[in-house]
Every structure is written in structure tokens, then in C-alpha cells.
Amino acid sequence: MKSETIISESFYTSDKNLNTKEQILKKSIFSSNTKSLKKSTEKTSSPLGSIVLAGTFLLMLGGAFVVYTLQSDFDQFQLDRINSSWGFPFLILAAALFFFQTGSFLYNLYLYFKYKPIESVSDDLLPTCTVIVPAYNEGKLVWETLLSLADSDFPEQKLQILAIDDGSKDDTWYWMQQAKIKLGNRLSIYQQPENKGKRHALHRGFELGTGEIFVTVDSDSIVKKDTLRNLVSPFVVDQKCGAVAGNVHVLNNKKALLPKMLNVSFVMSFEFMRSAESMLGSVLCTPGAAAAYRRDAVFECLPEWINQTFMGQPSDIGEDRAMTNMILKQGLHVLFQRNAYVLTNVPEEYKGLYKMFIRWGRSNVRENIMMAQYVFKDFRNESKFGARLLFINQSLKIIMAYPFLLFMLFFIAVHPVLFFSSTLLSILIVSTFSVLFYAKRYSFADAFWAYSYSIFYTFSLFWITPYAIATANKKGWLTRGLS
Question: Where does the chain cross the membrane (predicted)?
């Protein structure tokens, strides 16, 4: 498989149209040169990063050694658990889940190898497109986003770009105005009278848009030159296509350790999982960073989407997952385009990261409940097996969150050494696939962050799903405040 590598390089330029002498960030350039990425990785490596990676391997190898040394104690623990009143049923359940997950993984692997992104169609065949960029407290980032969109290899007469300031408290509106000066009639900007949330900003864009296809792009994201045309081409090839997910990578992956880890995680989540989901026509979530929707499909569910509630409360999060769910419910296909790259910013600190995951977790709980209402009905003329399998897989992770949390706490209380050592060994085994996958697709050196991310998530974010389930009715974006 040919490696497809992305790097972003920001450069500064002065512009006579701006009312400031400050040099500003103009655009990001994408490259497919693997050697350049390796050099970039070497330049951005830090002593702290090296220490973390070294510590990761020491922990995993230490865990493997302890499991080997204490094998007899581990066997005795298993026997004691089997002989207990609750242990044997739990073991049967765990074994059944293991075989189900293994079978699902092998099926996804088969689908991944079958997957191929749809090639871009010609300019004549490209549909008209409205790009909607909602922004809240993004500052200069929205300028960079809008310029990258305007620089797209997409027929100018077929492209409408709308930027909507959702009542920002910083200088976001100023940078939108500067982008308007720069781009002229190619860009239309609007300002919400007050902050009403991303869903309402998008809703205004949907109502103002004239394109056959709506594309939503987050205001802290940068698109590749051919992203838009690759993102909308499936609608021409597949008339049953209702939505398309872009391929999200991390923009700030050279700035801090968490973005480095998340970039490897994102590649696994998008390029592996969504490739498999796309083969089933049932990608479960089109990301806010870059997604496309057929106009007719959007207006079919727009009233339900903007007025969506959960447990009597208006839904102000998970607008992307909700829109995807409602389009799947219409019997339409939701696909993934690996060649539609977008770079987006992610939190660089633990607090911002767990808040983002809580928001995603709550949305996942809510939308799985919504999906349960139609997925086992005759919602699609074609095979419904794939959508149902994906739903079951997602639901099992939610249903089993508390039983496995309780077992984990029991294991720690009874045999802490066995728990930590066996968990570290499991991470070494399971995460090796992610390492090999990323190394094959992009960079061998960066691939090892998959191990660090697994350890970090397992021991510091394990509580996210149980907490999201318990607080699924709560509102709030959590990460939208000024830094």
C-alpha cells in the first residue's frame, strides 16, 4: 500500500489589504513526502517525549515480566474466580464478548482491505456546494480555515462559503471581516446576535445555503487543496449517498504529547474503522471537522434535528452524530472518504481532553438510544446487517461499562500487581496492531505513540464512559470557553 503522508507547514506573509502591520498566518500546505515527515518528526522530538516513550516500553515489558514470573498466582486467581458463585458466569460472558470482538475485528479488517476511496469526478460533474463554517472564540484560526477553503481546487462558480460567528467574545468576528476583505464575494459572513450553540449556527447556514451539497467545517480546521472535491464526489457516484465523513488528522500534533498520541488514535479511528463502516454504508458519525450532506437529506430531518431533545432537555451537543443518525434512518448511505483530508486542533491538556471525551461519550449514549428505535426495523432497502452489527458493537461497550468497571476495581483490590501487570501486557499485545497500521500508512517513529496513548487512556480516562452514561442528560459543550 502506498503511504499517504500529511504535514502542515505554516508561513507568514504581509498583506496590504489588512489594517495591521502584523504578519498573519495565511495557509497550510500539505505534502505527501514521507521523508519530509520523518525529518519533521525528528525536529519536533523532545526529551520529554523520549522519556515518555521509554517509560511506556519499560512499563509494558515490566508488566510482561511480572505476568511470566507470577504465572502460578495468576492461574490460581483464575481458578478461584471460576469456583466462585459469580466468577464462572462472568468468565463465560467475558469469553463470549472476547470472541465477538475478535470476530468483529477480523470482519472489519476484511472490509478495510476491500475499501477504496471514490476518486474525484470532473469539474463538470461536481455539484454546487455550500461550505458552512460555524465559529466561536476561534480568533485567528478562523482566518486560516477560510483561506484554506478558498484555496480549494473546486470550481469557484460552484462554491459558496458561509462563515457564522456564534456570538464570540474574542476577536473572531474581526478575523472573519479580514477574510471577507481578502476573499470578497467568495465569502459571506454572518454574526449571531448571541451565543446559541454550534447547532443553531449550522442551522442558519443550512437555511442560507444554496448548494446541492452542504459541507460543514470546524473553524479550527484546515483542508487540503483537493479535500472538498473528494468529499462531495461520492454524491455523484452514489445517488443513495446521504452523507460523507472526511479524514481527520491532528493539526497541533507537534506542540504537545497529547496531540501526538491523539493523531495516531485518529488515524486508527478514521482510516481503519470508518473505512470498514463505509463498506457497510453505515459510518456512524460524520465529524464536525469536515463532513458533507446531501441537501435534500438535511432538509428532510432539519426540523427534528434543530428541535432534538433528550430526557426533556434540548440537545446542544453531538450535532454531527445526530445528523448522521437521522440520515441513516432515512435509508441513505453514509460513506467515508480517506482522500478528503482535514487537519484540526485537539486539546493539549488533560482537562480539555477529558471534557471533549465526556461530550462525545454523552452524545454516543444518546444517539445509540435513538438508533435503537429504527435499526432493527426495515429502514433500508439494502442489507441492514452492517448497521445492526455496528450498533450492537457500540451498545455492548456502553452496556458492559459498569460490569467491567466493578470487576476492575475488584481485581485491583484483591490482586493489584496481577491487575496492573496483565493490563500492561494486554496493551502491548492489542495496541501492536495500531502501531503497525500507523507505521504502514505514515511514520514508523510516531507509531509508537499508540502504546503511550493506550496506557494513558486505560489508566486516566477509563471513567469517561461510566460517567457519560450517568450524566447523559446533562447539557453543555464544556470546552467552548476562552482560554
Answer: 48-70, 90-113, 389-412, 418-438, 450-470
Nearest to 406 by CA among 63, 93, 64: 93
d(CA 270, CA 267): 5
Q: What pLDDT score was predicted for residue 479?
A: 62
pLDDT in tens, 279-324: 999 999 999 999 999 999 999 999 999 999 998 888 888 999 999 9
Contacts for 77 with CB less than 8 Å, ≥ 6 apart:
414, 415, 418
Residue 80: predicted pLDDT: 80
pLDDT at 78: 78
Point out the residues of the chain with pLDDT beneath 50: 1-44, 483
User: What are the cell numbers at 219?
Assistant: 473553524
What is the pTM assigned to this prediction? 0.88
Which CATH number fits the domain 41-483, given the four candidates 3.90.550.10, 1.10.760.10, 3.20.20.140, 3.40.50.1970?
3.90.550.10
- Predicted pLDDT at 482: 52
pLDDT at 316: 86
The domain limits of the chain are: 8-40, 41-483
Question: Which residue, chain included where needed, has cell 483561506?
Answer: 147
Can you state the angle between helices 449-460 and 257-267, rounded to 10 degrees? 100
pLDDT at 39: 38
CB atoms < 10 A from the CB of 87, how many? 16
Q: Are the C-beta atoms of residues 217 and 342 closer than 8 Å to each other?
A: yes
What is the Cβ-side half-sphere exposure of residue 54, based on CA atoms within 13 angstroms? 6
